[in-house]
Design a protein that fits this description.
By secondary structure, this protein is of the alpha/beta class. It has nine helices and ten strands. The strands form two sheets. The protein has a six-stranded mixed sheet, sandwiched between helices. It is globular, with a radius of gyration of 19 Å.
Length: about 325
């Protein structure tokens, strides 16, 4: 989760923080990567998605795909602080299934040498669950920062003064900011020479904008929170522009695993059994409802192998 309240250098001059309503005349019509401009009068260029957060599920937003670089953009510019005020991710707690998923994320880092003596920063850490996971395993130099958090809860920017960090995690953050190059330049200054940064984000190349009613796609598009969604090639280019080397690629999210029920398609199907919003993931599991659904059971068993690869992670090394 990323925000706009205390580390404003990460946002471009067109930041949404200064806007008051969804009805603002400002629109994102210019691609943040290649400067292509979409024609607002061309209705065929836009797809309409509903907000998958329960408090705003009746609201709809338009998105468009850049025909040059394939980046996806949310057309509507809104006051994001209004939407983050009821963001369900703040309700998340560490559970046994989440520990399994975090173990998977941990292994993506240890594959590239991450050890307990290294310094680590989870940038955009939300409520800091992964930081807590690492600290419970004696990673004493694990820190978190999130601009949307309160100063008492990972929103204190002075933690960045502990730089340089050997490893930085940027999980589900880059798609939440207006200017990715400004964000990555900031992280470049925080990363130690030879250090690693893992960027997890949706993969625009595998998102079907013609099916906005399917949770496999509307969860990744996640309007209006995701401002820009990139392809693998674009993210790698952004990293290379910082002088980083792309050293690994994971073609799915860390939470897409072979474990029963712990895969993206199973959770997306579970959502469809209830009200279709992501809020259900953070509420007590309705086990009976899930187990009585043949589709859920199918995806719980086979979903990992039927992944639509709507998310990805890229590991970079600072040269």
């Amino acid at each position: 989760m990323i925000g706009d309240n205390s580390h404003l250098s990460l946002l471009s001059q067109t930041t949404v923080a200064s806007l008051d309503t969804k009805n603002s005349q400002q629109k994102r019509i210019q691609c943040s990567i290649c400067d292509y401009c979409v024609d607002e009068k061309d209705n065929s260029a836009f797809a309409t998605f509903f907000c998958n957060v329960r408090a705003f599920r009746e609201e709809k937003f338009q998105v468009w795909r850049c025909p040059k670089c394939q980046t996806i953009h949310c057309l509507d510019v809104v006051d994001l602080s209004h939407y983050y005020a009821k963001y369900p991710f703040t309700q998340a707690v560490i559970t046994p299934p989440l520990k399994i998923l975090y173990k998977n994320l941990h292994q993506q880092l240890t594959k590239h040498g991450f050890a307990k003596h290294h310094s680590f920063l989870d940038y955009g850490c939300g409520t800091g669950l992964f930081v807590n996971y690492l600290q419970q395993r004696n990673f004493v130099h694990a820190y978190g920062y999130d601009p949307y958090a309160s100063k008492e809860n990972f929103g204190d920017a002075t933690v960045l003064e502990k730089a340089p960090f050997d490893y930085i995690l940027l999980q589900d953050v880059i798609e939440h900011v207006e200017n990715p190059s400004v964000l990555l330049a900031e992280l470049h200054s925080l990363l130690a020479p030879g250090g690693y940064i893992l960027i997890g984000t949706p993969n625009a190349a595998n998102l079907d904008l013609s099916q906005p009613h399917i949770s496999d796609f509307y969860n990744a598009v996640h309007v209006p929170y995701h401002l820009h969604i990139y392809t693998r090639g674009v993210v790698e280019s952004l990293g290379i522009n910082q002088g980083w080397e792309a050293v690994d690629f994971f073609d799915r999210a860390f939470h897409d695993t072979p474990w029963f029920g712990l895969n993206t398609r199973a959770w997306n199907q579970y959502q469809r059994l209830l009200d279709g919003t992501i809020n259900v993931v953070f509420q007590p599991l309705q086990l009976k409802t899930a187990l009585l659904s043949h589709k859920f059971l199918f995806y719980a068993i086979f979903g990992y192998w039927l992944s639509l690869h709507t998310e990805m992670s890229i590991m970079f090394r600072k040269t």
